[in-house]
Amino acid sequence: MEEIYIERNVVFAQTDKEYLTSDVYRPCEGEDLPAVILIHGGWYQSGSKEMYKEWGSYLAEAGFVAMAINYRLMTPTYSIYPEVMDDIRAAVNWLVSKSNEWNIEPQRLGLIGDSAGAHLAAQFSFQHATNASYKIRAVVGAYGIYDFEKMWHTSPETHTRLERFLGNAFSEAKEKYREASPMYRINEAVSHPIFDTSYFITWGETDKVVHPSQSESFIQKLEEANIETKKLAISDAGHFWFNILPGIRGGILKDYPNAEVAPQILKFLKENLCIQEVGNFSMKRIQELKKML
């Protein structure tokens, strides 16, 4: 177990209403460190970076720089999409700006999110698949929202929150619902020759908050696009188990199912962030070129 630094309430951006803060967990030593941004859930209206305090320490002790972030939250009179994506981008850019100071390798970045945070992580990975300054090589999503159009049609109880998040009902902005859904961003991303992101998708099969079909359908689309995808369904778990949520039992990394899930996620991150060659290219493309020689 490595000794780590923890810096809390570090300001990384400012919105029209507030400063955005983060908690940063990092090893005391190391070169070319991989880094992971942690994005909390809470239906875009609640939650905070503190939900990831155990994950932050866990990752830093394993040799990763981990940055747990706050982002703008919606209210009954304040819709936040697409502006919330600027908050994720600001966090990534701020972390990249620390590369020399903290010995980070910006071509080895990952994103982890749960529920709404899983949506933001996946959406960002496809929107910024071709950035030259950094490379998102790994995304972990726990019981995420990946298809707003499907959610509108299958979960009427979410209509108010979806309207609040996106600013419109589905009938008024069908294209916006699709544009905001990672499910419909996959093909465009994989068409770019440097896209090379891998995904680890986990969910509970008894989830009554975000239906398991959100994860299952997303995985199917990823696999159809030949994207490296690992999946882990927890047969007897629902929602709210991936990280700490005040007032709800569980969420500690030693609790079930995290005690089983966390080591698998750590293995996935090491495989994709620690042994990758550096550079803004696709490892899959390199393999294709080697075959042509």
TrEMBL record:
Keywords, alphabetical: Hydrolase
Q: Where is the BD-FAE-like domain?
A: 23-222
What Gene Ontology molecular function terms does this protein carry? hydrolase activity
PANTHER family according to UniProt: AB HYDROLASE SUPERFAMILY PROTEIN C4A8.06C (PTHR48081), KYNURENINE FORMAMIDASE (PTHR48081:SF33)
Q: What is this protein called?
A: Alpha/beta hydrolase
Q: Which organism is it from?
A: Salicibibacter kimchii
Q: What lineage is on file?
A: Bacteria, Bacillati, Bacillota, Bacilli, Bacillales
